[in-house]
Specification:
- It is a single chain.
- The chain has 11 helices and 6 strands.
- It has a 4-stranded parallel beta sheet with strand order 2-1-3-4, sandwiched between helices.
- Helix content is 49%, strand content 8%.
- It is globular, with a radius of gyration of 25 Å.
- The protein folds into 2 domains: 73 residues; 149 residues, Dna Topoisomerase Vi A Subunit, Chain: A, domain 2 (3-Layer(aba) Sandwich).
- Strand 1, helix 6 and strand 2 form a beta-alpha-beta unit.
- With 307 residues, it is α/β, with parallel strands linked by helices.
């Protein structure tokens, strides 16, 4: 009897199926992650020749086929595409109450001495770090390269309006613009607008790059037209790395540890206990409401008390 993989791969070349199977094994280990993260692993395994658009595009096409045919779950691969925005609506009052109870989450950060955010120059890591962002309820900002004046001014105003210091864990590439953004541009512009934030470069950091790094790199010459080229080469040398090359489990683990390290754990656990008590109370109210609108509560049934 032929395997499910072979049946679903009918019409695909043996080379394509080898690539898909390798991608499936990679994804089992590192999901959720971007297609580019998969490509880096395939590149290190010498299953694709380079990280150019032609090679990564071909992998993307194979992974679309693999997901459409059920060889790979859709949820394993994430990208920065936002969900469609719609106006919230419900079929009945009961539905909105159930939704409110299910989505209720205490603002754990209200009891913390610091504000913590995660920033990145690129949106490709949004899905990769989503489990950690959800776990801690941390704000994630994608600056899309050099953040606009409006965005940076807004951040500065937020820090001025809060009595709590802001700690930012920054995730970005190790290349001329990527390093300049976190080390020079962002601190300088936030300060210009009167704001203050402690920006900690979480990845890629100095331990991720250098002569003995095992991550795939590319020559800085590829970025020779970047206006920060000279600034970068004087400080960091001739090699560049993309943050997508860092294994997603390592990035998630690093972010988890970094956030946990700045928490007041007693205050955090106290907020968790309050959330449980409040959720239980909401569930009780929801049960009462269900009975009332279904006519099971004598108070609201025919002949019951009015006024």
């Amino acid at each position: 009897m032929r395997s499910t993989t072979k049946r679903k791969g009918r019409g695909r070349s043996a080379k394509s199926m080898i690539l898909i199977e390798a991608s499936r094994r990679i994804l089992q280990e590192i999901q959720p992650c971007s297609i580019r993260a998969v490509c880096y692993r395939l590149f290190t395994q010498k299953l694709i020749s380079d990280m150019g658009k032609k090679s990564t595009g071909a992998v993307g096409e194979q992974l679309v086929f693999a997901r459409e045919t059920g060889l790979i779950p859709w949820a394993w691969i994430v990208d920065e595409t936002r969900a469609a925005e719609t106006v919230a609506s419900w079929d009945n009052p009961e539905q909105i109450i159930e939704t409110a109870v299910a989505q209720y989450r205490k603002d754990y950060w209200a009891m913390q001495p610091r504000r913590v955010e995660v920033w990145s120059e690129k949106g490709t890591i949004r899905g990769t770090v989503a489990p950690i962002l959800k776990k801690y309820g941390v704000t994630f900002r994608v600056l899309h390269g050099y953040g606009s004046a409006t965005a940076i001014h807004g951040i500065a105003e937020e820090t001025l309006a809060s009595e709590k210091p802001m700690v930012v864990f920054y995730v970005g590439d190790h290349d001329p613009s990527g390093r300049h953004m976190s080390e020079v541009d962002l601190p300088k512009r936030i300060a210009r607008y009167g704001g203050s934030a402690s920006i900690i470069r979480l990845a890629l950091d100095d331990d991720d790059v250098g002569e003995y790094s095992q991550l795939p790199w590319f020559p800085v010459g590829d970025k020779i037209n970047d206006t920060r080229y000279q600034w970068f080469t004087k400080r960091f040398g001739q090699r560049c790395w993309e943050v997508d090359a860092l294994p997603p489990p390592e990035l998630r683990s690093r972010l988890d540890s970094a956030i946990a390290a700045v928490l007041d754990l007693d205050a955090w656990q106290h907020a968790v206990r309050i959330e449980k008590a409040e959720t239980d109370s909401m569930k009780s109210i929801m049960g009462y409401f269900k009975r009332s609108i279904s006519g099971l509560d004598p108070k609201y049934s025919e002949g019951g008390a009015h006024g």
